[in-house]
Amino acid sequence: MIQKTSWQKSAKIYHKSLGVKGDYFHQSVINPRTQLLLNLKSGDSLLDLACGQGVLARSLPLGAKYLGVDIAESLIELANKMNKNPRAEFLVRDITKPLFIKEKFSHAVIMLALQNLKFPKEAIKNASDYLLPKGKLVIVVNHPCFRIPRQSSWGIDEQNKIEYRRINRYLSPLEVPIKMEPSKGEQGEITWTYHFSLSDLSKMLSENGFRIEKIEEWVSEKESQGRASRMENRARSEFPMFLAISAIKSYY
């Protein structure tokens, strides 16, 4: 049985923020760079774990064989409604439990979803279980060193005219509620996000038979205008928003 998820109720809010092609960061940074890391070729197949409403699927070449799975039935309904790829399929599955899928894939991706899982190691295990030998897994997360919910923030050093990133906690695992509609206060929908360190992530991959091939850190490409623009742009270029890892399944 598929367990309930906070994302089921938040599907409309989430879809409104992303749209068909994704928000600014999906279109300018996340989707194109994820595709470069995946490097899909003719004959390859992709398993998208926690695919949401299918934002990555719609940016892939139409001929790519694709399976997207997500625990939220409402998000899968949206994905199917917008799907135009005859070789793409979407299923309701809890990616921290056995998926009961017969086929195996050359590639897998977990894009901005691992941080929403209380048990991320189980999702990585599923990626390993459903990848072919030497298959590639790409993981994209909000940068765990610099983007820690409620424990990281911007600050300004007026004397040195720099904007800096303040980090209050890092190594400790965290479970943090996120308000999807802040303007509604206590009446708004809530989802949960989880923080884990880079060493935690490395350990999860290693324990499930993955060898890290490449690590990339992606910054925002936005540019500020006005009096503080130089300071803000420099800070934005120094502290990446996203961390991406490609890892190869190294056994069986």
UniProtKB/TrEMBL annotation:
CDD domains per the UniProt record, alphabetical: AdoMet_MTases
GO molecular function: S-adenosylmethionine-dependent methyltransferase activity
InterPro entries assigned to the protein according to its UniProt record, in alphabetical order: Methyltransf_11 (IPR013216), SAM-dependent_MTases_sf (IPR029063)
Annotated keywords: Methyltransferase, Transferase
GO biological process: methylation
Domain Methyltransferase type residue range list: 47-139
Protein name, per record: SAM-dependent methyltransferase
Organism: candidate division WWE3 bacterium CG08_land_8_20_14_0_20_41_15
Upper classification of the organism: Bacteria, Katanobacteria
